Amino acid sequence: MEQKIRRDRYMGANLRKLRDKHNISQEKLCAELQRRGCDIGRTTYAKYEAGELNIRVSVIMELRKIYNCSYDEFFVGLDEE
Asked: Who is most buried in 7, 21, 38, 61, counting CB within 10 A?
């Protein structure tokens, strides 16, 4: 049985907070992700932040390296109702 993935309203906000904290534009972040082998365009990344798309784990792994943070920072508030 196929299960639909529910859009998560918190992940996008966490992605945006991290990007803002590091004072980097979506364009520059996407360029860095592409340099590291993640083929992500700004439009796609904007959809991650807006909660319109689920982000791939490989992208989160690279973002953690770019931001030098723990994985926990990506998931803050996800288990709250």
From this structure: 38
Residue 10 has pLDDT above 60, yes or no: yes
- Specify the CATH number of the domain 9-69: 1.10.260.40
* Domain boundaries of the chain, sorted by first residue: 9-69
53-70 pLDDT, tens digit each: 889 999 999 999 999 999
pTM score, whole prediction: 0.84
Can you list the pairs that 50-59 forms with residues at least 24 positions away whose Cβ atoms lie under 8 Å?
50/12, 51/7, 51/8, 51/9, 51/11, 51/12, 52/7, 54/5, 54/7, 54/8, 54/11, 55/11, 55/15, 59/33
